[in-house]
Amino acid sequence: MQFCDECGSMMHKQDGEMVCASCGASADSEGSEGFVETASQDTSDVIETSEDAASEGKPTAEETCPECGHGEAWYTIKQTGSADEPPTRFFKCQDCGNRWRDYN
């Protein structure tokens, strides 16, 4: 990971050099060793492998889909705010695949 000398933001590789996404400054790459590019990562650890998957391996909740009215959805919980705020619940309808969130 390389950071911009001008503003301190994280830089990304573009056309053989490192470019800052915030201020546009460029610098020579410190070498390609140790860099991980998203395109080369595999998706073997992704739970949801297809849109017609019968079970996504996630817990289910009795939540009404705002799109189709179905009464059951898969959910995940993530801490999106600070530690003293409640976590956010992300839902996906088991019938139509609609996604929504709930901020307790």
Describe the structure.
By secondary structure, this protein is an all-beta fold. It folds into two domains: 1-30, no CATH class; 60-103, N-terminal domain of TfIIb. The protein is 0% helix and 29% strand. It is built from no helices and seven strands. The strands form two sheets. It has a four-stranded antiparallel β-sheet, with no helix packed on it. A three-stranded antiparallel β-sheet has the order 1-2-3, with no helix packed on it. A hairpin with a 5-residue loop joins strand 6 and strand 7. The two termini are 36 Å apart. 7% of the residues are buried.
Q: What topology emerges from the helices and strands here?
A:
Elements: E1 11-14, E2 17-20, E3 26-28, E4 60-61, E5 73-78, E6 88-93, E7 99-103
Antiparallel strand pairs: 1-2, 2-3, 4-5, 5-6, 6-7
> Percent range for helical residues?
under 10%
Domain count, please report it. 2
Termini, distance in Å?
36 Å
User: What sequence of helices (H) and strands (E) makes up the elements?
Assistant: EEEEEEE
Region (Disordered): 31-66
Binding site for Zn(2+) 1: 4, 7, 20, 23
Binding site for Zn(2+) 2: 65, 68, 93, 96
Domain TFIIS-type: 61-101
